[in-house]
Amino acid sequence: MSVDSSVLSPELVASLITALEWGSCVMGLLGALVLATNTRISRWGWLAFFLANLCSVGFAVGIERYGLMLQQLGFVATSLLGMARTGLLPGVDLRTSPAPLIETPAHAQPR
Q1: Of 49, 60, 10, 54, which Cα lies nearest the Cα of 27?
Q2: pTM of this prediction?
Q3: What is the pLDDT, as a whole number, of residue 17?
Q4: Least packed by Cβ within 10 Å: which of 16, 37, 44, 88?
Q5: Are 63 and 3 in contact (CB under 8 A)?
Q6: CA dihedral angle for residue 16, residue 21, residue 23, residue 24, rounded to 10 degrees
Q7: DSSP tag of 105
Q8: Burial classification of residue 55, based on how many CB atoms lie within 10 Å of its CB (0-12 exposed, 13-18 middle, 19 or more buried)
Q9: How far apart are CA 94 and CA 85, in angstroms?
Q10: Cα–Cα–Cα angle for 49, 73, 68, nearest 5°?
């Protein structure tokens, strides 16, 4: 899936690919930093990850690397899940606590 060169010049295509690469880099690092602060603004890290993933999808398509594109589409899904679990998606609220996968034995529970 290459870009029609009659529509966009090769220089413009290269500039767009570079912008997507750096957009992904900056937003991904910002998302990691914001999540790592573990503060009231940490949930916004999911939005930064989501934007980074979208940039990466565009970048992967632009350089015709479809394995990377598929990986980033999976990360888009996990970013959307993180956004939903923190209340950032309008109309979607998954902020309930899930049941633990493994029950803690009674003797190991705090008293």
Answers
A1: 49
A2: 0.79
A3: 97
A4: 37
A5: no
A6: 140
A7: P
A8: buried
A9: 4
A10: 100
